[in-house]
Amino acid sequence: MKQNRKSKFIGFMYLIRLNNCLMGVFSVILSAFIATRDPDYIKLLLSIITVFFVFAGGNIVNDLFDIETDRVNKPSRPLISMDFNLKHMFVLVFVFFIAGIILSAFISTAAFVIALFSALLLFLYSWSFKRLPFIGNLTISFLTAILFIFGAEAGGDFTKGIFPAVFSFFMNLGREITKDIEDVDGDEYAGMKTLPIIIGKTKSFFLAVVVFFILIAITFVPYFNGTYNKWYFFITVFGVDIVLIVLLSIFFIFDDIRTKRFVNNYIKYDMIIGLIAIMMGAT
Q1: Please, which of 39, 113, 126, 165 could form a disulfide with 65 given CB 3.0 to 4.6 Å?
Q2: What pLDDT, on the 0 to 100 scale, is given for residue 190?
Q3: Membrane-spanning residues where (predicted)?
């Protein structure tokens, strides 16, 4: 029984994507400290809890609406491989969303609007938007980007979150496209209409390359206009831009799911390096 409870707890951590929730928390803390070196710590704590709840709810509802696809793509997902009550999980989604929205109201009116809009958009994404070619990709990229505006708002100056939001948007948009290429077999089986299914894997890959190269071009702007310092420049060039080019080359050369999944995971980690560069550059 103890082992079963432990396994279910671990499964629940996978279900809410604990690593994604923590990355969201990290992004909020980073953008708050970019906005100010002396944030209101009560508001910062509220923003952290809000993001954790909204992210957790969004990740659960995503799996709930994606069960059939995951039976092919990722059969080890907790909702498939473990005995979770689906009705209870739907209730938990709304508990997480409502708790996050209520807490955000104590930060500011703008934070409340962002949290409410994000929760609604996460639900719509999982229910419908993710099945629409490119609309789903844009939606999740926008949701990730607005996280930095939210964090900077908690820090007292939402404008300081604009560049991190733009960086995040393009990084996630490119990754969303490559993830669709990775998942094309399962998505096609489930009747989804993602970009690789509509226009093919090759054209989708080159669209992702265009998005990533727009991102690479944008990364130079804050250094040359004097917004960020030399540390940002060096970390971004060697830790983000060059790494992205190498990862895209690997993705193109090796046409197997394991390699593509490896690349997509490391693109996520490359985003963390970019955020560290922004933090270092803003000091």
Answers
A1: 126
A2: 67
A3: 12-35, 41-65, 86-103, 134-152, 205-225, 231-254, 266-282
**How many Cα atoms occupy the beta-carbon half-sphere of 281 within 13 Å?**
29
Rounded CA-CA distance 194/8 in Å is: 32
Higher pLDDT, residue 221 or 6:
221
pTM: 0.85
Which secondary structure element, helix H or strand E, spans residue 178, and what is its range? helix 162-182
* Lookup: tokens for 69: 């696809």
Q: Where are the alpha helices (DSSP H) in 36-108?
A: 41-64, 67-73, 78-81, 86-104
For residue 79, pLDDT over 70 is answered with yes
Break the chain down into helix, strand, coil percent, rounded to 5. Answer: 85, 0, 15
Residue 279 in tokens: 């933090």
* CATH number of the domain within which 162 lies: 1.10.357.140
φ and ψ of 173, to 5 deg = -65, -45
The whole-angstrom separation of Cα 239 and Cα 273 is 6
Express each pLDDT in 263-279 by its tens digit: 988 898 898 899 889 98
Question: How do residues 190-221 score in pLDDT, each as one tens digit?
Answer: 677 888 999 998 999 999 999 999 999 999 99
Rounded Cα gap, residues 222 and 274, in angstroms? 13
How far is Cα 248 from Cα 263, in angstroms, rounded to an integer? 8
Our count of domains for the chain comes to 1
Residue 173 structural domain: 2-281
What is the C-alpha separation between 235 and 82, in angstroms, rounded?
Answer: 42
Distance CA 114, CA 270 (A): 26
